[in-house]
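FYI - complex with adenine, inputs then prediction.
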Amino acid sequence: MSKIGIIGAMELEVETLKAQMTVTGQTTRAGMVFFEGTLGQAQVVVVRCGIGKVNAAMCVQILADRFEVTHVINTGVAGSLNAALDIGDIVISRDVIHHDMDVRVFGYALGQVPQLDTLAFPGDESMIRLALSSCEEANPGLHTAVGRIVSGDQFISGKEIKERLIAEFHADCTEMEGAAIAHASYLNGLPFVVIRAISDKADDSAEMDYPTFEREAAGHCARLVEVLVNKI
Ligand code: ADE
């Protein structure tokens, strides 16, 4: 039987899921509240990890050790790095990279974690396929792409840095937790997928767009995840 850890960085990214689930247990670890229960027929643990990569990695480790989850889903919002991806659209992780890991001075590629055997953490193929079909069911007609997500401890809100991320990584969107969740899942041998809805364009308009669109965008992801967990 699958047990699926669902992580959002912010309350609005998990509040809909928490409202929909039947909660059977609540546990606090490292300041994070883990809600155990069912979402439809699926066994889930839903948690808000807080912002940034350290919180996100810690959260996965707790899900692995304390809750023994079999799969990890990260849901939330992101800034678009692809002109074809507009606010509200969805990106499902083909793979995920740390954009702020930089040990090029010793010959590593930008984003490469030294001594790790991969640059990009690949999303689980079966979860990606199921996420795509779930999105079609949950958000009919919504533009959805399977693509590259890059993460760093940085809110991207400028043309120059945006252009650099596009040039260096050919990424589709950027956020602040996905690579840590992918990395920690990879180390624990857990299949994962990151699902993000676009809340802004990661440029000079991001500061204005993000607060305006984050709720609507997060809602698209939550609807998708609710369908997805019952297919895994
Ligand atoms: N999450 C949503 N938009 C973002 C952005 N522009 N940069 C980093 N994280 C984000």
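The mean pLDDT is 97. The pocket of adenine is lined by residues 77-79, 155-157, 174-176, 199-200, 202, 206, 210 (CB under 6 Å).
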